[in-house]
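It is worth pausing here to work through a concrete case rather than discussing structure prediction in the abstract. The textbook approach is simple: state the sequence, then state the predicted structure, then interpret. We follow exactly that order.
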Amino acid sequence: MSRSPSPRIDAHQHFWDPASGGDYGWLSGPFAPINRVFSPDDLRPALAANRIDGTVLVQTWNDLGETWDFIRTAEATDFVAGVVGWVDLTDPDVAATLAALQAAPEGRWLVGVRHLIQTEPDANWLLRGDVRRGLAAVGAAGLVYDLVPNLPQLPACVATAGAFPDQRFVLDHIAKPEIRNHGFDEWARLMRGFRGERGHVWCKLSGMVTEADWRNWTAADLRPYVREVLEIFGVDRCMFGTDWPVCLVAADYSRVVEALEACLQDLSDDERAQIFGRSAVEAYRLPAFQPAIA
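Step two, the predicted structure:
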């Protein structure tokens, strides 16, 4: 992919193979249409059509083997600019695990870590002592921690950001508000807790179309949520992501891009460039794009 002066980065995309033994049981019912292999070759045409220079490849299940596979994929794929993988934060040896990943020939591509906290029965899982010890190891390794909550986990995410003021955090999918059910008020009340943490927390303008009415959503349905996120975090702490291929149940890649562009039409060209690329480069310190923002 090209390296433009102001790169366009999709900060949230996945690859998977449901036959690999991963935890893909959720690819059933309404998600059955995306129950197939998704590889770099599947994504490449959409990136070219939308002038995307690079992507952040994000974990799909809580498995260390996938993290190793993904950093190797990044090494072999010209457009993958970084990987958000998984490690067991509760493992007393988590620092050694992170060191081994970073010391590997492909280790530079590991830019962040996340855990699917919304699958944990304890909404306060992030507040556990063993988890916090693991988060400290992530910070010491110089990596981002991605937060991927539903609303019940959102208060713990705010508290965690406050407890780790020197740690870079990225909030995925604007915390998954129930857009289809007009769930703005409670979501906005909880999200405003991040106002005091905006110096070290970024928010992905991603995952919105699958929280809206899949068949009937429009950009107008997303706009109030985008505006609220911009007010809470500021343009310089917001970034674009598609959540491809999950988004395909509600929209193709280009429509996701067009919807966010419509929501941001009142911003300046420089502000849009920040959201569509520079924020991801800055938050994740994407190695291939550092000269572009120097």
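Step three, interpretation. The first strand starts at residue 9 and ends at 13. The chain has ten helices and eight strands.
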